[in-house]
Amino acid sequence: MEDINKVLEMLDEIRREQALIRKELGEMSEKIDKIYERVPVYPEVRGAISAEEAKRLKIPKTCTQTLEALVKLGGEASAYQIANLTGRARSTESGCLNQLWEMGYLEKFQDGRIVKFRLIRSPEGEEL
User: Fold this and answer.
1) Which of 9, 67, 99, 118 has the largest count of CB atoms under 10 Å?
2) Residue closest to 82 by CA, chosen among 99, 62, 98, 65
3) Which residues are within 8 A (CB) of 106 and not within 5 positions of it... i.e. 6 or more apart?
4) Looking at residues 73-84, what average pLDDT do you find?
5) pTM to 2 decimal places
6) In the sheet that 106-111 helps form, which strands lie side by side, from edge to edge?
7) Counted domains in the chain
8) Is residue 43 part of a domain?
């Protein structure tokens, strides 16, 4: 019986810690959203896709700027080209491009040694 009580106490402690972790994750998510709102969107990129449209399509906030830049570049570009347009790190753009590729919005292909991405569906969902 004593062992069962110890296990129950441990479960209660785990639940309390889990609740704290969830709370902290929520707070971190809010902070990330606030930081993202302050990140400048370069004028050449702004407006290619609306925030509402990106949300409807379930495109992560961090990838919206990447998608906008790809649209502005004619629907085909490398992570390096997109980073030059957005002012963000190439690795950030590469991560976003790969997410968009996994979501089915982009085609990934090699152009020599360079990996490029091409829109295969418009943000409105139409085949290109």
Assistant:
1) 67
2) 65
3) 70, 97, 100, 117, 118, 119, 120
4) 92
5) 0.56
6) 76-78, 114-119, 106-111
7) 2
8) no
DSSP 40-96: PPPTTTTTSS-HHHHHHTT--HHHHHHHHHHHHTTSEEEHHHHHHHH-S-HHHHHHH
- Indicate whether 124 belongs to any domain: no
Co-location of 17 and 63 in the same domain:
no
Maximal CA-CA distance, the chain: 70
Q: Are 86 and 42 in contact (CB under 8 A)?
A: yes
Of the pLDDT bands very low, low, confident and very high (cuts 50, 70, 90), residue 12 is very high
**Which residues touch 77 (CB under 8 Å, ≥6 apart)?**
69, 70, 116, 117
